[in-house]
Amino acid sequence: MIKIENLVHKYTIWKDENTKSEKTVLDGISLDIPSGQFVAILGPNGSGKSTLARHLNVLLLPDEGKVWIDGKDTQAKERLYEIRSRVGMVFQNPDNQIIGTSVEEDVAFGPENKNVEPEKIRKIVEDVLRKVRLWEKRKTPPSKLSGGQKQRLATADALAGIPECLVLDEPTAMLDPSSRKEVINIVKELNQKEGMTIILITHHTDEVVDADRIILMKDGKIIGDDTPKKIFADHSLLKSAKMDIPPVVELSMRLKKQNIGLDEPVLHEQEMIRKITELYRSKCGGWKDAAR
């Protein structure tokens, strides 16, 4: 789906009217992301995550190196529309993407500008609003939505283009914990039920425990690329990238240090409850006590 080779991106910094310098934001990034994979990109502010995201939808072009989307070079101008149709983008602030006077009008805007037939537009609007659980709000003005609902609407806007890949650039940064969970659950469903390629860019480590793969960035470079269990097991790597450890993972690692019986990081609360229950049963030897 996505192939990146030695991607370099630089920004020009003007110190004054006559003096400028260059800052390398992406420094030799190489990646292969197959179709249907759920990839999370983690890293502190300034690590290059958002700049990388913008290369995937041709909002930026490489200074050096190459980016291919479905085998198409992003620097081929004649392929621009085709690439952007394949990769949908959801940004941090949903208000920057919402322009309609109602939820359904907002979602319909994109297909209408592509001259899609009205009957097909109606089907697209209903389909994507049901996916993001906003169908009942279709007549509601976007200004009346909560922050989480607005982000779900922005996701629906991206889905209305029927992309094969969805890139979400810190979509939960401005949301409360409950709204964050709503958005992440929808992202997981799109990957698991629709087979959509998901690239989630975030600094919230607890949002990525269900990803197929975590890419860890620092100072414009990739410093880690592996499964969540292996990434979260490497405390020194997380510390070097200034990333927090999810609470459940941290608890499991502390129990491991105490030789309580956990051989690898536990990523989910229910899995932790099950493992602790099993350990308790094995030590108590009785089901009645363990159930208590």
From TrEMBL:
Keyword Cell membrane attached: yes
CDD domains hit by this protein: ABC_cobalt_CbiO_domain1
Swiss-Prot/TrEMBL keywords: ATP-binding, Cell membrane, Membrane, Nucleotide-binding, Translocase, Transport
Chief localization: membrane
Domain ABC transporter: 2-244
InterPro entries: AAA+_ATPase, ABC_transporter-like_ATP-bd, ABC_transpr_CbiO/EcfA_su, ECF_ABC_transporter_ATP-bd, EcfA_1, P-loop_NTPase
Membrane topology: Peripheral membrane protein
Subcellular localization(s) per the UniProt record: Cell membrane
A GO term from the CC aspect: ATP-binding cassette (ABC) transporter complex
Molecular function (Gene Ontology), one example: ATP hydrolysis activity
SMART domains referenced in this protein's UniProt entry, alphabetically: AAA
PANTHER family linked: ENERGY-COUPLING FACTOR TRANSPORTER ATP-BINDING PROTEIN ECFA1 (PTHR43553:SF24), HEAVY METAL TRANSPORTER (PTHR43553)
Family in the record: Belongs to the ABC transporter superfamily.
Name by which UniProt lists this protein: Energy-coupling factor transporter ATPase
Organism: Dorea longicatena
